[in-house]
Amino acid sequence: MTPLTPSLTAARIKARARELGFDACGIAPATDLPELRAFAEWIARGYHGTMSWLARSADERSDIRRMLPQARSVVVTAVNYNTARPFSTECADRDTAQVARYAWGDDYHAVVNRRQRALLSWMHHESEQPFYALDYVDTGPVQERVYAQHAGIGWIGKNCCVISETLGSFIVLGVIATSLDLELDRPAFDHCGTCTLCLEACPTQALVAPGVLDARRCISYLTIEHRGEVAADLVAGIGAHVYGCDVCQEVCPWNATAPASADPAWQPRPAWTLRALDDLEQASDDELRRSLQGSAMGRAKLAGLRRNVRMARENAAR
Ligand code: SF4
Ligand code: SF4
């Protein structure tokens, strides 16, 4: 067993994470956590749709030690990307393009990766002994949500999002698996209780059971990951969403008083702020490409975005 490094404690890592712009940080064990096992069944049911990389990496996702056999602890970070703007459900207008909150500003992968790399490099500098580590922000074969729950960041809600009691669920998670034996946090408690607001509000009935998402029906999947035409029975539910969907988070009572971040990285880009659908449809390819630079929305590609705008226009005309 790796001895605890006296110079690099969990408390110091959390304090440094705060200094680097993280809103929460906790430590989970790199062990066989029971919640990790649900993923294999989710894949077996085909709920991942065409996201074949999820099925291909199911083994790795079953335990972070598949990626780093020496892992003993998982440092989980969270950044609040919420901004002080109304929810899409509050300004629902069939002619106005809706974009998921996380995509309003700069690409969170780049922003949070930079901070996480800085945290990891500081850990290496401060540790009296060398250690193994791997870090991921959304792109690795890791079930971040499970480790976040066990790190005390928040519980996995019936809407499948990690919900922090203090931050709500508009948060980006990052993980650093490390061979260090760090002091662990207690897992977060589930505070969903008898609430089912998210299941009832989902426009496409994608939450097929509490905490179970059929991605094939989810607007986030349909507008971002899915290529080609969308099945006719799902188009109407997409409404004016042109990139992602926040409905199941917006109706969550834990987001009603979620704090807003003043971080410039998350402030909405004018190109995507309450933009009229017809204006968006008429935008040139050059303009759209420029507005996608450095944005998480690049994932949908220009063709996907144009398809989404077309569906939203069809829905507005219904
Ligand atoms: S993101 Fe939207 S479509 Fe997907 S589960 Fe939530 S409410 Fe439903
Ligand atoms: S809306 Fe209710 S059930 Fe859904 S995640 Fe929030 S608290 Fe849980």
Number of helices: 13
- Number of beta-strand segments: 10
What is the helix content? 25-40%
Percent of residues in β-strands:
5-15%
First-last Cα distance? 64 Å
Helix and strand sequence: HEHHHEEHEHEEEHEEHHEHHHH
Q: How is the main sheet built?
A: 4 strands, antiparallel
The assigned structural class equals alpha+beta
Q: Mean pLDDT, rounded to whole units?
A: 93
Spans of 5+ residues with little confidence (pLDDT < 50)? 1-5
Can you list the ligands bound to this structure? iron/sulfur cluster
Number of domains: 2
Question: Spatial order of the strands in the main sheet?
Answer: 1-2-7-4
- Kindly provide the radius of gyration, computed on alpha-carbon positions and rounded to a whole number of angstroms: 20 Å
What does the overall shape look like?
Answer: globular
Task: Produce the secondary structure layout.
Blueprint: H1 10-19, E1 24-29, H2 38-44, H3 52-56, H4 58-61, E2 73-80, E3 98-99, H5 108-126, E4 133-136, H6 144-150, E5 155-156, E6 162-163, E7 171-178, H7 197-201, E8 207-209, E9 212-213, H8 219-225, H9 232-238, E10 241-243, H10 247-250, H11 277-282, H12 285-292, H13 301-317
Residues 159, 202-204, 206-207, 213, 218-220, 245, 247-248 line the site of one iron/sulfur cluster.
List the defining traits of the structure above.
binds iron/sulfur cluster, 13 helices, alpha+beta, globular, 13% strand, disordered N terminus, single chain, 2 domains, 33% helix, two-stranded parallel sheet, four-stranded antiparallel sheet, 318 residues
